[in-house]
Amino acid sequence: MATVSTKEIKNRIRSMESTKQITRAMEMVAASKLRHAQTKASDARPYFEILLDTIEDIVCSGQGAQSPYLTQRPIKRTAYVVIAGDRGLAGGYNSNLLKMAFSAMEEKDAVVLPIGKKAVEFFKTRQVSLLTQTPQNAAEVSVGDCFSIAKQLCKAYCRGELDEIVVVYTRFVSVLSQVPEMLRLLPLAEQDNKKIPSEMIYEPNCEEVLETIIPEYLGGVLYGALCESRASEQAARRTAMNAATQNAEEMIADLSLKFNQARQAAITQEITEIVAGSQ
Predict the structure, then answer these.
(1) b or e along 41-70 (b: 16 or more beta carbons within 10 Å of the residue's beta carbon)?
(2) Are 170 and 85 in contact (CB under 8 A)?
(3) pTM score, whole prediction
(4) Which of 217, 111, 231 is nearest to 171 (CA)?
(5) 241 pLDDT exceeds 50?
(6) Alpha-carbon gap, residue 229 to 226, rounded angstroms
(7) 83 phi, psi to nearest 5 deg
(8) 69 near 105, Cβ under 8 Å?
(9) Is the CB of residue 118 less than 8 Å from the CB of residue 84?
(10) pLDDT tens digits, one per residue of 135-147
(11) Which terminal CB of the chain, N or C, has fewer other CB atoms within 10 Å?
């Protein structure tokens, strides 16, 4: 009976060691992808900041007041761009984001543009109206795709098909902290009028420049949110795999103790039987 028990414990230890190797490898892959995503996000930030400064300068000058992007109108239909992951094994990364997005659009006339397999599956299951039925893998979306999406959303907004555009993503705070956030893209928020406009001259005029750069600005914001989400996903996966590796080590240590106890009990029983037989 003891022999069978020790054999089962040995098999479980071998299985846990195999699982530990897998989780450790996934942790290392996630750490590598995390560094790559952080580099992309930092490289895209200067372009986004320059566009934002230009928009603020035009708005503060008062020369772009007639732009439809600045007009505050009643919100009847809202588009949500939800950026989630393509795979699981990332702790609460996907569930926290998707629950927040779904609760925000309840009792609203909302339509979703999902990015990531998990987002597509989540909103299809709940029969939420989607702007596109084609699954978009978050890992395969490029900066060009972000600008294309931004231009399509801007055209729909100018035609009056959409009254508000919101992006839902996960902001990367640190390796141990990722926060789901919602950012309103259109209409643009009112800027601080106390800011002194620059003496920059825009050709042919401020309104045309504003209408040209706002789709670019939205594309930059979407790409930045995508990079933040990618970094957050890899950080969450790294943390989850690290915790899984530690749990596997603890289980291996516990099983090894049980194995030694069972082996010691078997040896003690054999010695007792030998002594009893000799007597």
Answers:
(1) beebeebbeebeebbbbbbbbebbeebbbb
(2) no
(3) 0.79
(4) 231
(5) yes
(6) 5
(7) -105, 110
(8) no
(9) yes
(10) 678 888 888 888 8
(11) C
